[in-house]
Write a structure and sequence with these properties.
Blueprint: E1 5-10, H1 13-21, E2 30-33, E3 42-45, H2 47-50, H3 60-66, E4 71-73, H4 77-92, E5 97-102, E6 105-109, H5 111-114, H6 117-135, E7 139-144, H7 147-156, E8 162-165, H8 168-175, H9 188-196, H10 202-207, H11 209-216, H12 218-227, E9 245-256, H13 259-279, E10 282-293, E11 298-308, H14 311-323, E12 330-338, E13 341-342, H15 355-376, H16 384-387, H17 390-414
Parallel strand pairs: 2-4, 7-8
Antiparallel strand pairs: 1-6, 1-7, 2-3, 5-6, 9-12, 10-11, 10-12, 10-13
Helix pairs in contact: 4-6, 11-12, 13-14
Length: about 425
């Protein structure tokens, strides 16, 4: 084997962490995500819930229809991140290169450490044992000659599984009569295009290569290579500075048509973006606003800015973008910065040379947060650390929405408008 790659994937990660921490949940259909009656989707669920047809990304209302007896919980992202750090520390110790692609998933290049398939098998078993003994969770591990084959292998014997795919022939023999979605990058929309042309299995892709390329262009070329077991991608360690953007968004439990409230929410989102960017010493050179309207139509608006390194600037740019969009009820709002660069590569602005300018921005943020505190009777300035947590952010935004609605209702009633 020219390269030996391990793919590690935790089993129902969020749900498994909650079950570990509360054994009373063991054996029950546990569903992590939104709660019944809320807007949102399933983040993950226990294997007991999957027996009812519940799966990740399913609308929470559909999940409840299928499994009304399930136990529903909001995710505790900060706890999962902490556990993820422990997991990756274990896994990375056995690899010359590690590529984390999610909190609970990674590719490991063990070519040098393993030397051969038997060595890789021993590493995989050690990873499984340490994950179980030190973290109290199970993982599924695949060993293979490529990244695609390793991911396929880790999914083959879930949960708590182990599988090997040593060669391209082994990979092809395994998947040739499976649905096209078995292959990496073939999602629902791509699959529908292939189905419409009579291409339903990996074997069909191999036999109708020209048609696949005509339908899908470069993606079709890639999919065709995968159908023959060809994937020479290397394990590439993730670097925060390689990200295309940094953003945060929230979904409202009821549509919001008051754009002044949306501007207030944008400030909290901008603070979260600033915090994450500072953690990795990154700066943006543009701001993007994302909106999803009540009818599920999504739009994005962007503007270039050379000073997207603080919450106030990000917020002000986002507000300008918001002022220019059509005013309709909004279901989701988000803000992000893009064209990222590291501190050492950042183009300096005039404000960088003047302490007074930076102090002015700090004072402006303090004043703006003070105005929010007066409007919503919340101590934003004193509790920013909590706001950065996803669950607290969502609860705060919902409180603001309800407060704004109640204020408008009372005001309208006082004016005799109801």
């Amino acid at each position: 084997m020219e390269q030996i790659i391990i793919h590690v994937d935790m089993d129902a990660f969020f749900a498994s962490v909650e079950i570990r921490d509360n054994p009373a949940l063991r054996g029950k259909p546990l569903i992590i995500g939104s709660l019944p009656g809320e807007r949102g989707v399933v983040a993950t669920c226990s294997y007991e819930a999957r027996k009812y047809g519940v799966h990740s990304a399913m609308n929470i209302k559909e999940a409840y229809r299928r499994c009304p007896q399930g136990i529903y919980m909001h995710p505790n992202i900060d706890k999962y991140k902490a556990v993820s750090g422990q997991l990756h520390e274990i896994w990375n110790a056995y690899a010359s290169a590690a590529e984390a692609i999610a909190l609970d998933e990674a590719y490991l290049d063990v070519t040098q450490q393993a030397q051969d398939l038997e060595g890789a098998r021993q590493i995989a078993m050690t990873i499984k044992r340490r994950t179980r003994e030190e973290i109290g969770l199970t993982c599924s591990v695949g060993v293979a000659y490529s990244k695609t084959a390793a991911k396929t292998a880790s999914e083959e014997k879930k949960p708590d599984g182990y599988f090997e795919i040593p060669t391209p022939k082994d990979f092809v023999d395994l998947v040739i009569d499976r649905d096209v979605r078995t292959l990496y990058t073939v999602g629902e929309m791509t699959a529908e295009k292939l189905y419409a042309s009579g291409i339903r299995t990996v074997r069909d892709i191999r036999e109708m290569q020209d048609m696949v390329v005509r339908l899908l262009g470069k993606q079709g070329q890639w999919i065709t290579k995968l159908a023959f077991g060809i994937d020479d991608r290397k394990v590439t360690p993730y670097r925060p500075q390689d990200a295309k953007s940094i953003g945060r968004e929230v979904t409202f439990q009821e549509d919001v048509d008051n754009f002044e409230l949306l501007k207030d929410v944008l400030l909290l989102l901008a603070l979260c973006v600033e915090r994450r960017a500072q953690r990795y010493h990154l700066y943006g050179n543009g701001v993007t606003l994302k909106l999803t309207y009540f009818n599920m139509q999504s739009i994005t608006r962007s503007r270039i800015s050379s000073a997207c390194d603080c919450a106030v600037t990000i917020w002000q740019e986002a507000v300008r973008l918001l002022d220019g969009v059509e005013k309709r009820p909004v279901r989701l709002i988000g803000v992000s910065i893009y064209n990222l660069s590291g501190e050492e590569n950042r183009q300096l602005t005039l404000e960088d040379y003047f302490t007074d300018a930076r102090q002015h921005r700090d004072a402006e943020l303090k004043e703006t947060l003070g105005a929010l505190q007066s409007r919503y009777h919340l101590d934003f300035a004193g509790h920013l650390e909590q706001i950065y947590q996803m669950d607290t952010l969502h609860k705060t935004v919902e409180y603001m929405r309800k407060h704004f609605f109640n204020r408008d209702t009372v005001g309208n009633a006082a004016r005799g408008e109801l």
